[in-house]
Amino acid sequence: MFRTWEALSHAFSEEYYPQWRTGEPNFVGFYQKEGELFYKTLDRFNGLLLNFPHHVYKKEQLTETLYKGLNGQWSYTSTD
């Protein structure tokens, strides 16, 4: 049982926003890995977004970061 609002708020934050999710996401310097398919890059980028649900970036900034991080390989399927 929680006796203060502060205790309840702290417990809620720890449960739903653990410390590893509240750090700064590493969107700066995001890039497509060599040989990585576009959909894998997009999955990895979306994973960053899911891990940091309360980031402060605008959609335009995120789109630009993803676009600048692509290496020009727009393949959706493996070339193997």
- Total helices: the number is 4
The number of distinct β-strands equals 0
Sheet with the most strands? none
N- to C-terminal distance: 58 Å
Parts with pLDDT < 50 across at least 5 consecutive residues: none
**Over the alpha carbons, how many angstroms does the gyration radius reach?**
18 Å
Order of helices and strands: HHHH
Work out the strand percent: under 5%
| Class from secondary-structure proportions | mainly alpha
Mean pLDDT: 78
What's the helical proportion of residues?
40-55%
Based on Cα principal axes, name the global outline. elongated
Write a structural description.
This protein has a domain at 27-80. The chain is built from 4 helices and no strands. It has helices spanning 5-16, 19-22, 38-51, 59-69. The longest helix is centred in the middle third of the chain and has 14 residues, at 38-51. The N and C termini lie far apart (58 Å). 0% of the residues are buried. InterPro entries: Retrotrans_gag_dom. Residues 3-71 form the Retrotransposon gag domain. Pfam families: Retrotrans_gag. This is Retrotransposon gag domain-containing protein.
Topology:
Elements (H helix, E strand, L loop, with lengths): L4 H12 L2 H4 L15 H14 L7 H11 L11
List keywords for this structure.
single chain, 80 residues, mainly alpha, 4 helices, Retrotrans_gag_dom, Retrotransposon gag domain-containing protein
